[in-house]
Amino acid sequence: MAAALLGRRGWSRVRAGRACRVGERSYAAISGALERAVSAFRAVTGDEGVSLGVAIREQHGRDESVHRCRPPDVVVFPRSAEEVSALAKICHHHRLPIIPFGTGTGLEGGVGAVKGGVCFSLRNMDRILDLHPEDFDVTVEPGVTRKALNSYLRDTGLWFPVDPGADASLCGMAATSASGTNAVRYGTMRENVLNLEVVLADGTVIHTAGKGRRPRKTSAGYNLTNLFVGSEGTLGVLTKATLRLYGIPEAVVSAVCAFPTVQAAVDSTVEVLQAGIPVARIEFLDDVMIDACNRYSGLSYPVAPTLFLEFHGSERSLEEQVAVTEDVTRGNGGADFAWARDAGSRTRLWQARHDAWYAALALRPGCKAYATDVCVPLSRLPQIVVETKEDLARNGLTGPIAGHVGDGNFHCLMVLDPDDPDEVQRVHEFTERLARRALSLGGTCTGEHGVGLGKRALLREELGPLAIEVMQGLKATLDPKNLMNPGKVL
Amino acid sequence: MAAALLGRRGWSRVRAGRACRVGERSYAAISGALERAVSAFRAVTGDEGVSLGVAIREQHGRDESVHRCRPPDVVVFPRSAEEVSALAKICHHHRLPIIPFGTGTGLEGGVGAVKGGVCFSLRNMDRILDLHPEDFDVTVEPGVTRKALNSYLRDTGLWFPVDPGADASLCGMAATSASGTNAVRYGTMRENVLNLEVVLADGTVIHTAGKGRRPRKTSAGYNLTNLFVGSEGTLGVLTKATLRLYGIPEAVVSAVCAFPTVQAAVDSTVEVLQAGIPVARIEFLDDVMIDACNRYSGLSYPVAPTLFLEFHGSERSLEEQVAVTEDVTRGNGGADFAWARDAGSRTRLWQARHDAWYAALALRPGCKAYATDVCVPLSRLPQIVVETKEDLARNGLTGPIAGHVGDGNFHCLMVLDPDDPDEVQRVHEFTERLARRALSLGGTCTGEHGVGLGKRALLREELGPLAIEVMQGLKATLDPKNLMNPGKVL
């Protein structure tokens, strides 16, 4: 019951479309503290490192989701971990919430200032600090984005493969446990962070694996690195990340294949994985999504359940991967297998996949999109996708489906009119049904977008009250004043 | 200073070779509580589930390390998570330490009852509960060993690849964040546990990813799974683990190659990884180790720095992996490249590698062995191995080297006479120097054996006092009475 209420409250903000306020302390009550804090901030960062401007604050109070909340009271722009620490100490002294901000490309309202407070924009901390090509690792500051890193790495023969679509900051990706299209081969952020520098709520600076350390494996004490990966800014501010790198594959081949049914596409996925094919990407798009992509990107793929695939390896190993995969898909009734070997046609293909969000939005101009994010065991995918498509049809909702099918993770890109309260309510109820369907099949309500604002009630259903109590205990230990991104996750 | 003292205290136990006592509460003080607890235990498990016998207790107070400590006061043999929970509640009520015990194959003294208390032997919980071949996952009780699982899986085309050498229990492997020879390709326990059932110190049962859930990826709240993986029984008793499985490769090829120098062997490793060869195992053995293996296993490998390699894949992909690897090793002066394609010669080769421990012991009959476990960035391996060999020679110590070179992790198998206090002291000082050498090169003192009793002081040096404080805070939150495997890790 409480769960349902919380959920509705979250969505009512969407409906209202304006700033809201959650929590015990009002803005007025903290404004005196805020004034004193702002002077102290200026002493740390200089005047240019502190902004009270409405436009800047608005811009730092939202991400790419439909969640809308009040902007922070002030935005600070630290240039180093030392400045982050000094600023955090000031916030701690004045009991002001701290909300870390990377690029604002999150999808679950993780940067909204639900209790007001101070947004720490990390965009000025954008140095790539330590590249060790022979050790396959690099250390970056939190403002470095995925594309900036890969562009920096271009001549080294190495790359960082985790790709959530958006050009997110790498520490933001770590904070939400992001993954994306390459996870089936290269893992998520959980598997690719070796060490983190973290500023805790009281300004203490820790290194989760020890300062400057970068062994590829360790069993030295509790795994603090993976406690902060996925903590969505609620346990500390990530100020440095040491990441695993990979050799750029000698050759890359992509392919598209249409199937008679969802089941046939998923069966092909399982068989490709069972055959030990180290597929780099295996993405599912349903008929509605393909149709939208065709329209948006001027393509002409058959309108049917479809797999987009990518293989990485040497020229010779690719031949074999391709041959086995063609066998598998043919055996499952796959047709129109189209290979893209040259960079141009590969880029066109993956551009279409990456533009799925915009293609979905283009189905109903003027509308907003919200992406669901359930993840289930592979064998349950056909059932949940079929039931979900029926649910969409029954409720007259637009929700093309795209998914990282190799991981059992898929998104319904819900296109809705935020000014139509009835539709907003129907979408809300649909997403709750979808999440519960995933939970009943042994899955999760959030494969890679995190919990943020909107999935706190579902998280409790997913994990049970006792595991949530453990998480609350961890939060209280690391952030006893509840200053770190309050109102998120738990 | 405190660090050095702790370290010496640990080793003094080795020297004394007898039971010792650490902590504030003496055995006498808890014996009344113990008596009442034992009656309560019997009500839970029946008489056969509780043992006070000296031999059973002795057997459950030690692992395969040189650390010797007092045995537990009593050993209980629960048959279910419900029984573990009921027993934990009794311990909690009477403030008795709880020490989880799998197979006793640990290498850092993790099962010693340093404060007395109750050993929870999990050997009677050995059911394989849920196998989902199409989802590549399985759920096991804590007494199931690695070999038992793989034997159960034999006809499914799947296997669990993490292989620390010993036939350890899978939950014990999770508890110490074990890895071993296959980690370079398949990851460690950190990457291969999807969900854990855990009984906390007060008997509460939680599921780290939610009861019955097994999505291949998730971003649902804090990563509790990886907080318990590697916690060495100090945060809770693992009573179920859901594990990732992999397809058994179509073909396997092994190889041995000798090199003129350590540098040449490591350079070959880096180049193989850079070339994107998905090598399954790449193990380094130094000249002393090879010589010991030759003697012990009746082999005749050239006495030189050597790589043992294994490749998994399809027949065709193996041809290519083999060809590229031969190129790489030849370019680095590798000679005598010997391929083992048939199962018989492969088994002989890897048997020699797995027998390294016994081969080392056979160098000095009647002695004991202690394995160091540092892990450094790949590029630092040649330097640390060369310096370490010089150190061994300078101090007249026997320490053949075997290592998981693809991860930068290697072991000196120190063979020592436990009754020679001078040698024990020299080995102790050597292992501290080696650990500090690894720390100074950006590495860790423990790649896969955990912290246990012996590396607590080094852990503090490695992570710094602030990260240790965070870990202590987490421990105090989950186990406020310090009952879970006290005296370990922190």
From TrEMBL, chains A, B:
Broad class of where this protein is predominantly found: mitochondrion
PANTHER family per the UniProt record, alphabetical: D-LACTATE DEHYDROGENASE (PTHR11748), D-LACTATE DEHYDROGENASE, MITOCHONDRIAL-RELATED (PTHR11748:SF111)
Catalysed reactions, semicolon-separated: (R)-lactate + 2 Fe(III)-[cytochrome c] = 2 Fe(II)-[cytochrome c] + pyruvate + 2 H(+)
The protein's Enzyme Commission number: 1.1.2.4
Native organism: Megalops atlanticus (Tarpon)
Name of the protein described by the UniProt record: Probable D-lactate dehydrogenase, mitochondrial
SUPFAM superfamilies: FAD-binding/transporter-associated domain-like (SSF56176), FAD-linked oxidases, C-terminal domain (SSF55103)
One term of GO molecular function: D-lactate dehydrogenase (NAD+) activity
Location in the cell: Mitochondrion
Top-rank lineage group of the source organism: Eukaryota
